Amino acid sequence: MKLTHIYNKVALFAVAALSLTACNDVDEEDRFIYVEPQQTSKNILIEDFTGQRCANCPTATGFIGELQAQFGEEHVIAVGIHSGPLGLNTPLYTAEGQHYFETCKWPIVGQPACVVDRRTKVEGTQGGLSSLLTPVTAALAESAPLELAAVTSYDEATRTVTIDVNAQGILDVTGKLQVWLVEDNITSQQTMPDGSMQWQYVHNHVFRAAVNGLDGEDFAIAWDEAKTITHEYVLNDAWKAENMSVVAFVYTDDGVQQVVKTHVIPAAEDTPADE
Fold this sequence. Notes:
The protein is an alpha+beta fold and 275 residues long. 17% of the residues lie in helices and 39% in strands. The protein contains four helices and 16 strands.
């Protein structure tokens, strides 16, 4: 993904012309030309608070899959956070995930619970797909105040992933940058809607670790500013690097401002065209 800078050639030529003209000869309304910030599409983050003993959680996961099929996995980015009473003492449970469960802005009473862009909570499966569709479509219709890209390199010998998070300001943003690792295609147990236990259930977008602290790091960017934040992380031996991805997002008190996902082992579509 290439980051684009904001240039307005028309405005630049207009400014140059004005510099050659005496101020008294220019109408007041023509002395200042507003350059509108470039718009960039908004991706959304769904934090799926789930558990392997949660019978309704596979249904919620199915709803998320339908949204990703409709809008694209690169635009609807899900992270399955195994936590809470229905995730405790199961193979995919993490203490970090429990932290997010307990500190969620909206107290989570039951599972499944999906939080969209840290703005809207949808708890349970009553209301079906439409209960998630409404906040998701509203968020996707917005413009993001910054561009974000994650570029990775992986050292197989040391199992170390290097992550460059590239940001470009569209507007001024002050908040936090969070970098997570997730894993797909994990075969493990899951309670199903009929109450049975499926031992070969395939779990996707499973939260594995927070790379830069539980709540991320301070982040600020100004209009037209570009910056890169780099982190390294050594993968757990039990994780399959080929199934892992980086999820990076910037959030403020108003919610997630932009989110991206990329493979730990770079795929062809993750490599910039000029490399």
